[in-house]
Design goal:
Length: about 425
């Protein structure tokens, strides 16, 4: 027996309903804001992530799946979606004097210790907006996520954390202040933070080590080091969110894990899965397009971990019931003639009701067995064609919840009779 790879999980039929529900909601929100889908390859040149994400990040240092192909080229399975989207936008001329608002969805790969909600192959939904530099577009991508939580019923289970990293020059000055501070408290740092002190000191602020929290709390705040323009941008963003009724926490320790961020950064966090965890995060990355070979273009976006959102939906029983059952109607046939023509009958019904999820009983068995199967599958109705129905050219409709009596109708009446069923 050959088992699956550790940390790369199968999504089984009993689980796929929650995924389909989330995917449908994500697409609906992206459509509602006028964003357009882009699909990029799973494999990219390794250099893309070295330059884009940053060589001193945990992703590049520890987590990437990288290998040489037969030509000796170094390739990497994408560990996140932004860099590939930027590469595609530059390569195909999507950013030349243009505004783009894009979304994507698909698997990403990181080699880390598998745990609940965190896997080596996981799935990410992301949004990227290019060519707009004002705080209004920052607010829009945050409002998009807020609307998603509302549509999913999760608005009371997530909290928005917000920060600004400032422009690059101000960030560099703050970095120097931070290094001086942590060097003065070097003995209090754990091994990982000591390593980051030389490579990516801002990431020390994101440490979850309990013994580190006191020294982190005393570190200088990046908000005190913001340049004038970034401070104005951040104040306007907060004003827009307040006006829209979006509650948030200003968190000066929020830095995100990737090198390309500047100014706005944000995360949506939840404690409904046990320890507090991030389910969605993003921010502004105005320098990334230029860093990857394009002309300088302002950009902002976010990435959402779909596994964690699915876990939330399942834990809180918020998945739409329609997605938890595979069928709307179950076609039962009884008698020699209906049995001989059952596939034609099923196709006729599908032609009349194209959105109806109809399963045809196969494999024989009596009427009671077929009814039990319809009930086990959670079908809303059983469509019955026996000898009487066959001779009269009709079909009997039995509502499985018993709210309406069984009745017989002409086939052409089915679309009207079944319109109360949420098909599709």
């Amino acid at each position: 027996m050959i088992n699956g790879i550790r940390g790369m999980n199968d999504i089984l039929p009993s689980e796929s309903g929650a995924w389909r529900y989330l995917e449908a909601q994500l697409r609906a929100v992206a459509d509602a804001y006028g964003y357009v889908e882009i699909r990029t390859p799973i494999l990219e040149r390794t250099e893309l992530f070295l330059r884009g994400i940053g060589e001193a990040t945990d992703i590049v240092e520890k987590e990437m799946y990288t290998f040489n192909d037969r030509n000796g080229d170094s390739l990497t399975m994408r560990p996140e979606g932004t860099a590939g989207t930027v590469r595609a936008a530059i390569e195909h001329g999507l950013l030349h004097n243009q505004e783009q608002r894009l979304w994507y969805m698909g698997p990403v790969f990181r080699y880390e210790r598998p745990q609940k909600g965190r896997y080596r192959q996981f799935h990410q939904f992301g949004v990227e907006a290019f060519g707009l530099e004002g705080p209004d577009i920052d607010a829009e991508v945050i409002l998009m996520t807020a609307r998603l939580w509302q549509n999913l019923g999760l608005q009371d289970h997530v909290t928005l954390h917000l920060n600004s990293l400032g422009a690059n020059e101000a960030r560099q000055k703050y970095r120097e202040q931070l290094v001086d501070y942590f060097r003065a408290h070097y003995q209090a740092l754990d091994e990982d933070s000591r390593r980051r002190l030389e490579t990516n000191p801002l990431r020390i602020l994101d440490s979850k080590v309990p013994e580190m929290q006191e020294v982190i709390a005393g570190a200088p705040s990046i908000l005190d080091a913001l340049d004038t323009e970034s401070a104005r941008h951040f104040a306007e963003l907060q004003s827009i969110l307040n006006d829209a009724g979006i509650e948030f926490v200003v968190n000066p320790r929020l830095v995100r894990g990737l090198d390309y961020y500047n100014r706005t950064v944000f995360e949506w966090m939840t404690d409904s899965l046990g320890a507090q965890g991030t389910v969605c995060g993003g921010g502004r990355y105005d320098g990334l397009v230029h860093m990857l070979g394009g002309k300088s273009v302002p950009a902002v976006g976010f990435g959402l971990g779909m596994e964690r959102v699915v876990l939330l939906l399942e834990a809180l029983s918020l998945v739409d019931e329609h997605y938890l059952t595979p069928v709307d109607a179950y076609l039962i046939v009884a008698g020699a003639e209906p049995e001989a023509h059952k596939l034609v009958i099923a196709e006729k019904i599908r032609n009349l009701c194209p959105e109806l999820r109809l399963r045809l009983h196969c494999g024989g068995g009596g009427f009671k067995r077929q009814m039990k199967r319809a009930d086990k599958l959670g079908a809303r109705v059983a469509l019955i064609v026996g000898e009487d129905e066959w001779r009269s050219g009709c079909v009997s409709v039995k509502f499985m919840d018993g709210t309406r009596p069984q009745q017989t109708f002409a086939y052409e009446a089915l679309p009207e009779i079944l319109k109360s069923i949420p098909c599709g």
